[in-house]
Design a protein that fits this description.
The protein has 331 residues and is α+β, with helices and mostly antiparallel strands. The protein folds into 3 domains: 30 residues; 139 residues, hypothetical protein (bacova_03559) (Immunoglobulin-like); 133 residues, Lipocalin (Beta Barrel), CATH 2.40.128. The chain has 3 helices and 22 strands. Strand 13 and strand 14 form a beta hairpin.
Length: 331
Amino acid sequence: MNQSIKTTIKMNNNRNIFINKMLACLIFAISITACDQESIFTDEQYKKVIYLASDDDHIFKAVHMLDDKISRGYFSIGCGGSNYIDQDVSIELEPDTILFDKYNKSNFDIDTAKYAVLLDKSRYTIPSLSATLTTDNRDAYVKLPIDINLLGLSPDTTYFVPMSIKNVSHYEVNPDKYSVLYRVYMKNDYAEQQVTTYYTSKFDKTEEGDISRPGSASKIAHPLTKDKIRIFAGSQNFKADTADIRKWAMVVQIDKQTKLVSLSSYASIEIEQVGEPSENRYFEDHMMGTIYKRLFLHYRYRTLEKEALDSEPAQWSKWITVKESLRRLES
């Protein structure tokens, strides 16, 4: 074998050795990186963080029944991570309006008429701002009660109780879930706030001096008290406008025992019931396992067109008589 061939073979061998070494280094580096990533993933997976339960907008939607004067709800405090906590955790909350101010500014800017409001402190009681998440609690969360007086709250106002985590005895606090806006929604047997309540209406409407005209409409109902809801009179569509609400809104009160209904004005409208008492009633229709909630109403109304002045009496629309049948649409 001549010298040239020997030299070529030696160069090839050296190249192969170099490539093999480089491959070994590369495989080692990849394995180290994979181990680091796995370690980070494991740390994140098993890391325990304390948080206040809420949706993506930091709002906790709480539905409160109007059955009782005082309705109880709860803040929910949880602990994230794949494993259970290995020691009891004491959590302390505190009122915090920073998130509340951000909510109004980001959603409504200078339209202050649409701003949410803080629920007045005289309307709620939080027995304790402290809670303990114990090691034997397999739900991985603890509830902190809040008692609210709902009587007189407006269905047209958004009420918040803002709260944040002040401190914890162990572990970390989730920086994205340390505060919450507790939103109060009202509900009774006939209407609710969180999900808009609709009633379909079929009616006959007669304006003073005119003939009766049939029609149909979809009506929105709002809960007021445990036995009262608010709807618009006639075929008027609901509009979330203060002037419209004052002009068209009427109160429907259901007697749970007799099922008879009483009608009254919510603000400026004048309402008079027509016919026999039984012509204004509540009825539940049971069909194939479904309960259909119905209202039968017979009334007449007139709306305020111009308020009274010192020298002039108030001006009213003509009387309109309505006989209608409403059925609640279940969500």
